[in-house]
Amino acid sequence: MILTGPEITEAAGDGRIEITPFSGEQVNPNSYNVRLGDTLHTYTDRVIDARQDNRTTELRIPEEGFVLEPDQLYLGHTVERVGSDHYVPLLFGRSSVGRLGLFVEITAPIGDIGFLGQWTLMLSAVRPLRIYPGMKIGQIMFFVSLGEIDLYTGKYQAAVGPRESQFWRDPVASA
């Protein structure tokens, strides 16, 4: 089951969901709009190595916007800290943004129960595209889970700003 907009608002009010800052104007019929933060990270090496801690460069998105270039992966983040100990959050790009040729969440829309932080966005533009800090970039939906809940305590917990891949820390990555 997916939470409706009114239920998201109620759950944010009683603490079952945390959305900070929360705005009723960002509630949709069955999701919550999240906004783009002002920081981007890009990997600096031409080849990204899954078994290494890859270097990145930090960029700030000025008020007049920043142009994303094709064939480049940008790690952005949400303004909002979002999470829940009760529901499974899923983040997707907004259709209006997708219609501009921007992929917002390439492969990892599922958040874990217990995660709380700013969400890292994997941004990839089909054509050069100007983006702005604070623009509505994605939407988070909340799903009811069945069974015993094991809260997330992993390496991305309490994220602030974009977080690079920590895959290289996984013991399976070096196998």
The CATH homologous superfamily corresponds to: Deoxyuridine triphosphatase (dUTPase)
Largest pleated sheet: 4 strands, antiparallel
Figure out the total of helices.
2
Label the CATH architecture.
Distorted Sandwich
State the order of secondary-structure elements, H for helix, E for strand: HEEEEEEEHEEEE
What's the short story on this structure?
This protein has 175 residues and is mainly β. The protein has two helices and eleven strands, in the order αβββββββαββββ.
Q: What do you see in this structure?
A:
The chain has helices at about 5-15, 95-100; strands at about 15-20, 30-35, 40-45, 55-60, 65-70, 75-85, 85-95, 100-105, 115-125, 130, 135-145. With about 180 residues, it is mainly beta. The strands form four sheets. It has a four-stranded antiparallel sheet. A three-stranded antiparallel sheet has the order 2-11-7. The model has no long low-confidence stretch (mean pLDDT about 95).
